Each structure stands twice: as structure tokens, then as C-alpha cells.
Amino acid sequence: MSAKGDMYYAWADQSACPIKGECGGAVTAILKYMLDNKVVDAVLTVKKGRDVYEAVPVLVHSSEELSKTAGSLHCGTVLLPKIIKKYLDGARDMKIAVTCKGCDAKAMYELAKRQQINMDNIFMIGLNCGGSVTPMMARNMIAEKYGLNPNDIVKEEIDKGQFIVITKDGEHKGISIDELEEHGLGRRANCQRCETKIPRQADIACGNWGVIGEKAGKTTFVEICSEKGAAVFDAAVKSGVLQTSAPEAKGLEVRGKIENVMVKMGKKNQEKQFTAIGEGSTRLNYIMAESSRCIKCYGCIENCPICYCVECSTKKPHLVRPGVIPPDFMFQMIRFAHIADSCVNCGQCSELCPMNIPNSLFMHAQQVELEKMFGHKPGYDMTMPVLSFAEEMEERERLHSTGSDMIFENVFKE
């Protein structure tokens, strides 16, 4: 029997799970087992759209549909938890398996803390993630640095520190991610800052890091991260869809080294990017100048996994004057106050901003400072953030009736 912390090499048994998946197809096999045996009602994941630059969210109800979702999409930057909250009623009446990058897993926890997602009905399969590239960046990068037609690319992958593309004629070409990022290309800025490379918040964490020798490319490295994960993994093995073996000692070492290097890179990039926006009044002035391009489209709010309020304070006329573009800086201040202690650095607020305001950088920089002050690390467990100690509904009623945002008297009143 498996237990939390156990690690395996795993691959699909082709006779029981003929669906072709990547790295041995272990993830596909586990999802197939869960659907076929009614462990879950559906699987929420992504599939390739028109090309490798388009990741399309898809809710799969039948294992026959899983073949469309196999494989990686590093140019797809969709965040799935908000979809569960907005369109699937927070999984209150549906059991859903979800494939999760690190930011997906953290967003899932933060929404669950706010009672927007029912974690009892969620099974998370974590996917190791070295980062993703925005579709437009990928197209420009491939044309400029690779000298290839972006429309000719049929597959991309990140391996051994390189971003590798494959054309429809079978041509492979890879360039070091470090080299790309030195020229302002490569991964999204928030991915460069990320420290969550193996999402152990999930029930199981899967990837190809640590698979070496003849098993490389044919096997998935699986780490059991919860009792729920252990139960499903064991059941999938028992059903015959999944084969396993113990990981090689050298493979364990390699996996650990890869993770450590990438975490150190994340910390180094945090320091670099946070330093660039200054401190104190310098940082505030920088944020105000960048935010002055805001057209109040609400893209940052609509797509942020922490923004869940039914009645958004940024739409209150006594807080933010209606019809004023760019909006008063209070618009940004409200977002900082509501989100900064719980930002999971998913990058959606930057990526979907039509004015290219680096919102994610501002949020993440503040979150790290608040973490130093209060010790709360968002997205890793069910510990509540600092601001949760203010009763939301009570504060909404008071704010609506008084127009005052001063809560301290209520909070500290004996």
C-alpha cells in the first residue's frame, strides 16, 4: 500500500490503457481509471486548440476523450481553478479530477479557503512545471531567435534547460532558456519568479524529472502527496491500467537537483525583478505610473483566482469615481488590499491586461513582504490569510451603509 511521500516510476499498461500519452502515459491511465470506475464525474484539463499556441479548457466525461488531452502545452497559460468556481458551481455537486501546475494548485487552495471550491470533490494531479510561455511571445521568439515559421511548429517541450520546438517536417531546434531570457524572451515573468515547481499540494505529483536511462521518455515519476492520492494510485495499479517500479537512486538525486536549481532560480529572479521596481515611495511612484495606463476593463479582476467577491468594491462610486479613465489609484489600492496577502503569482492579471501593466509583479512583491511580516504563505495549505480575520459580510454591510473603509474600531473592539 502506498503512503504520502512514496515515489514511483509509473507507466500505462498498453493492453489495459491503449490511449497514447506522454512519458509512458501514467497520468492518462490514472484519469482513465477514475472515469471508468466512476471515482470522478469528469476531468478538467486542457487540450490543444488550433495549434500549439492555443490551450483550450475541456471538461471530459468519458475516457475515450482523454486522447485529445495527452501531452504538454507550454504555450498554454490557462488557470483552471477559477473555471471550477465560475462555471462548475465550485464542485459542490460534481466530483472532478483536475490537472494542476503549481499556480493551479495554489489557486485551488486559496479559493477553497474562501469556500468557493469544495475540495472534498476535487482530485488534483499535479504536473511538474518549469514555466510557460505566452502564445504571442512564443510566436515572436520562434520567428526571431529560431528562424522558423511559427505556423510550422507542431510540438514544443522544455528539456535539459532548453526550449525545444519541432516542425511539421520533423526538424528539432532548441535554445537555452537562460539565453532566451537574457534577451527578454522565454518564460513569463511570473514563471521566472516561481518557486512551486513540484506541486505537492496536489494529491499526486507527476513529471519526467528523475526518470533516467532507458526509461527516460517512457515513464512518469510519481510522488504520492496525500492519502486520497495514495488510494487512487493503488486502485489504478490494482485495476491493471498502471504499471510501476521503484525509482532509481540516481533518479531521485537528479529530480532533487533539478527542483533545487529551479527554486534557486525563482528566488534569484524575485530579487532581480523586485529590486527593479524599487522600494518605499520609489516603488509606489513606479506602480502609480505603470497603473496610469489602466482602462478599467476588469480583466485582472475577472481572471484573478483570489477575486471572488459578488459585489466588487472597485465598483462602489464612493470609493472609485465611475466613468473616469484611467481610474483613481484607489482602484489599484482596493485590489492590493484584497489580494496582496494571498497572491499565488499565477500571472493572469498581467497576461490578460490589454495595457501590459505588470500587475502580477506588483502583487507578488507585496505578498512576499507580507509573508515576511506575518508568516502566511498562500496556496500551500488551508491556513487563512491575515485579511480573513475581518468578517466579510459584516464589513460589506457596514461599508455599504456608512461608506467608510475604517474597520479597525470594529476589529479591535472588545
UniProtKB/TrEMBL annotation:
GO terms for molecular function: iron-sulfur cluster binding; metal ion binding; oxidoreductase activity, acting on CH or CH2 groups, with an iron-sulfur protein as acceptor. Its cofactor is FAD. Keywords: Iron, Iron-sulfur, Metal-binding, Oxidoreductase. SUPFAM superfamilies: alpha-helical ferredoxin. Residues 285-315, 334-364 form the 4Fe-4S ferredoxin-type domain. This is 4Fe-4S ferredoxin-type domain-containing protein. InterPro entries: 4Fe4S_Fe-S-bd (IPR017896), 4Fe4S_Fe_S_CS (IPR017900), Co_F420_Hydgase/DH_bsu_N (IPR007516), FRHB/FDHB/HCAR-like (IPR045220), FrhB_FdhB_C (IPR007525).
